[in-house]
Amino acid sequence: MSGNTHQQAEKMAEQLQQKVQVGEEGKHVLKTPKGTRDYNPKQMAIREKVFNVIVGSFKRHGAETIDTPVFELKETLMGKYGEDSKLIYDLKDQGGELLSLRYDLTVPFARYLAMNKISNIKRYHIAKVYRRDNPAMTRGRYREFYQCDFDIAGQYDPMIPDAECLKIVHEILSALDIGDFRIKVNDRRILDGMFAVCGVPDDKFRTVCSSVDKMDKMPWEDVKKEIIEKGLPEKVAAQIGEYVTLKAGGMELAERLLADAKLSKSEASCAGLTDIKLLFTYLQIFKVTYKLVFDLSLARGLDYYTGVIYEAVLTGTGTGAAGGEGEPVGVGSVAGGGRYDGLVGMFDAKGRNVPCVGVSIGIERIFSIMEQKAEASGERVRTTETQVLIASAQKNLLEERLRLATTLWDAGVKAEVVYKRDPKLLSQLQYCEDSGVPLVAILGEQELSSGTVKLRNVATRQEVEVSRSDLVAEVKKMS
Fold first, then answer.
1. What is the DSSP string of 323-375?
2. Predicted local distance difference test score (pLDDT) of residue 372
3. 417 in helix, strand or coil?
4. pTM value?
């Protein structure tokens, strides 16, 4: 389907949906747009926990952060995503500028480097991106979603930054504890060399690459059929199959392919295989090779990759679309990235390149898993960080509660008061139970006259009397 036909079909579907949503009285049904969702406080608490783990890892490896506009000039994005370019959201003409919502954070990053003439930076960027895709909400696939990117730009010795990116993927997925995973690694130069020695014409490299990239979703026979339908002889497709079905440990398979009679004739493949060997040397030092597999079927469809590419997938069983016995959890890949040494040069007036390598963490898919785990376990998720509620046991103590709250807030303590002049003590305690507030500071006439506060542990119901001057220290110690 062409891009225009795709847009027309989508517009007709939206118009039809709008008609369906208008009730008898002409009122619209309240809903979020297709492929988007709201997040309630519990979901946001889980999401924040995931973000903290990811940002903590990025900062631990010395990254600084940037931000870029949510939309870019259309010409900035076009021609960078291969067959996925049809998924870009175009905006209406805004006074002469043709704009599109950003599809990822990598192309805007490359534009940022070229525009500001930056030749080296280690940056992370967490922001929303937009894709006019067919959403699969239960699998964490949306039209509006966050990406969490870490990239190293600059001229460095081979495979050192690449290895650190893979270390970061391992670090984050291990810390999040979302299940067993594997990180598949390949190199676009190996693929290009392989296609060349198998007889694929240069102008068919990217389209064949796009077909090979579907091998994690389709059996080889179906991929082979698609390659033949794209105009390649069956003999060529069969030769490609001999290579792309190979998966093994990095060093062993790289050695075997370097000795392969056909593949060793390709300069590009030999360069890629040599780098893969070096990469696995560093990854052994980082103690992560037990999670990695050298997979010749990994292609990653984006046009801008030039070297090492990688993708992390879950290997545990699950309840998604692929929830059969021993099959992967149905959320697809949870991280991916690679080297893109030519992308910045596309934006530079003089074609000056800045070598880059990076990784993107699939936050939405990870979040879907974390949310399902929390639901299944019945885990209670706190949605606030309140340390103490200031309560009163008698009437006419609102001003005293507010004074004590001010003292705690000014000392950096997270505190709340109930917004009623004379609330019942039982309802104040119940509020703490319901919202997970661990402590209650109770004021009464007796406490006011003695300059003390009764501090109650909500879970154990134990109470201690604390002088007002010691309250801040005691709350920080107990919460």
1. -STTPPPTT-EEEEEEE-SSTGGGTSTT-----EEEEEE-HHHHHHHHHHHHH
2. 87
3. strand
4. 0.84
For residue 299, CA distances in Å to 78, 189, 258, 428 come to 20, 10, 19, 58
**pLDDT band at 12, cuts 50/70/90?**
low
Tokens of 14: 């939206």
Place of tokens 């709201």: 38
| CA-based R_g, the chain, Å | 28
Angle between helices 205-212 and 188-198 (to 10 degrees): 110
Q: Helix-strand-coil percent breakdown of the chain, rounded to 5? A: 45, 20, 35
**Count of other CB atoms within 10 angstroms of residue 259:** 10
The rounded distance, in Å, linking the Cα atoms of 368 and 333 is: 13
**At 153, is the pLDDT very low, low, confident or very high (cuts 50, 70, 90)?**
very high
92 alpha carbon, distance to own chain's centre: 28
Q: Which one, of 55, 51, 68, 61, lies nearest residue 104 by Cα?
A: 68
Predicted local confidence at residue 454, as pLDDT? 96
The full DSSP string for 187-225 is: EHHHHHHHHHHHT--GGGHHHHHHHHGGGGTS-HHHHHH
CB 296 within 8 A of CB 190: yes
Residue 240 neighbours by CB under 8 Å, 6+ apart: 194, 195, 198, 200, 208, 212, 224, 227
Side chain identity at 42, as an amino acid letter? Answer: K
Question: Which residues pair with residue 314 across a beta bridge?
Answer: 181
The predicted-structure confidence for 88-121, as pLDDT tens digits, reads as follows 999 988 788 999 999 999 999 999 999 999 999 9
